[in-house]
Design brief:
Number of strands: 10
Radius of gyration: 30 Å
CATH architecture of the domain at 79-221: Beta Barrel
Shape: globular
Strand content: 25-35%
Biased composition (Low complexity): 40-70
Order of helices and strands: HEEEEEEEEHEE
Mean pLDDT: 78
Region (Disordered): 30-78
Distance between the termini: 39 Å
GO molecular function: hydrolase activity
Structural class: mainly beta
Low-confidence stretches: 7-52, 56-62
Largest sheet: 8 strands, mixed, barrel
Number of helices: 2
CATH class of the domain at 79-221: Mainly Beta
Oligomer: single chain
Signal peptide: 1-34
InterPro entries: Sortase (IPR005754), Sortase_dom-sf (IPR023365), Sortase_F (IPR042001)
CATH superfamily of the domain at 79-221: Sortase
Length: 224
């Protein structure tokens, strides 16, 4: 079946990317202050020969420390997702944006794509978004086709590249028409941490080459 992409506008993409890439430059200047020296004592002794001024003692070197704020350590990327109730267990790879502004998706329906310009599973805020084709020529029906059968309360586990397992509990399962997709919600970078899983659903529309709807599963971390 023909490949499909999630509709993501160029403007939104640029906003998300620019929000992700924020650089902080901190400068550091160091200045030393000389300790005031006491004034020469006044005596009644007749002045003697004028002493030749010796070299000024060198001040001790003042250590300069680079005060640039260290960059935060990025969280490990997700490499696997499992929804045990639906026998979903599949690899996850990082993806970005296509030239036409749509979200990139792995060509193989057996792999899910994590939107690498957004939050990471296990992060403290925002929606970590994973998406996959419902099917593909290469692998046929993909694991995410089973998302439509997921029930609220189901367990979802995302494994990161360092082996950390992030546990989530499904809160909502929705079928949304593609032309009504709330992209600002799906790709939110602020707010409580959530996991958003997206694939295609509904009727196949041969005239335009994609399905009519998206199946969207939202889950919240369990804290386990």
């Amino acid at each position: 079946m023909a490949r499909r992409r999630l509709p993501l506008t160029r403007a939104l993409t640029l906003a998300l990317v620019s929000g992700l890439v924020a650089a902080l430059l901190a400068g550091c200047s160091s200045s030393s202050q000389r300790t005031p020296q006491p004034a020469p004592a006044v005596t009644s002794t007749p002045p003697g020969p004028t002493a030749t001024a010796g070299p000024t003692p060198a001040l001790p070197a003042v250590p300069v420390r680079d005060a640039t704020a260290p960059a935060p350590t990025p969280l490990p990327a997700p490499v696997r997702i499992a929804v045990p109730s639906e026998d979903i267990d599949m690899a996850v790879i990082p993806v970005g944006v296509e030239d036409d502004g749509s979200m990139e998706l792995p060509p193989d329906a057996d792999e899910a794509g994590w939107y690498r310009f957004g939050p990471v599973p296990g992060g403290e805020s925002g929606n970590a978004l994973l998406a996959a084709h419902v099917d593909s020529r290469r692998s046929g029906i993909g694991p995410f086709a089973a998302l439509r059968g997921v029930e609220p309360g189901a367990s979802v586990v995302v494994t990161s590249s360092d082996g950390t397992r992030h546990a989530y509990r499904v809160t909502t399962v929705e079928k949304i028409a593609k032309d009504q997709a709330p992209l600002d919600v799906w790709f939110a970078r602020s707010g409580p941490p959530r996991l958003v899983l997206v694939t295609c659903g509904g009727a196949w529309q041969a005239d335009i080459g994609h399905y009519a709807d998206n199946v969207v599963v939202t889950a919240e971390p369990t804290g386990d």
